Amino acid sequence: MQLTKATQSCDHDAIPMSFIPKRKISEAVSNEKNLDQLPPSYMYSMIFKDIVLEIDDDDAKSVNTLVIYCRQQKIPEIQINLLQSTYHQKSPIWWYSKSMFLHSMLNRALLMLDMERMIKLGFFIRSLHLQLKKLHQEQSSNFQQVFTVYRGQGLSQQDFQNLCDSKGGLLSFNNFLSTSKRPFAYVVSICKYLLYQPIKTRPKY
């Protein structure tokens, strides 16, 4: 149980982030030649997103391809069989939030920009994205005003400094984020800081 919690905490804090100062954004917008000054991880993730959302794969075939890959990666057979036999009976959000290999495999693939895994999971990334987009469209009418959501996030000392230096700029998460409307504080032991960071959001996709 302790090992599982430690693994989940590690996955939670290992979300890849790009910090882009406001000055660099302005320079990139004004001159395309300055695009190479943006973080490579940010550029790669944006390109991959554009590609994966355009692909229209056969989900059944893609699931079978993922199953073969999972067996090669020594994923527990019971989890593989569950995915193979019931994938289409549950929603992408259900699978993503379930305590099994999909969540951690996806997070690690996005963290490492592991193209092989990202391609194998492409159909799932696309389905999850589309379901979240659909839910947002359905629920946005209930949220006509700006509201605040919260997320605790572990940062290295260098990332925390980059965050401070990028005030007014762009903070890009290369992942799906879980947030809460309830405020909370998150202690970052590595940095010895207490983060209590509200995120403003609008009902707009």
Automatic annotation (TrEMBL):
The name this protein goes by in its record: Uncharacterized protein
Organism, scientific name: Rotaria magnacalcarata
Domain of life: Eukaryota
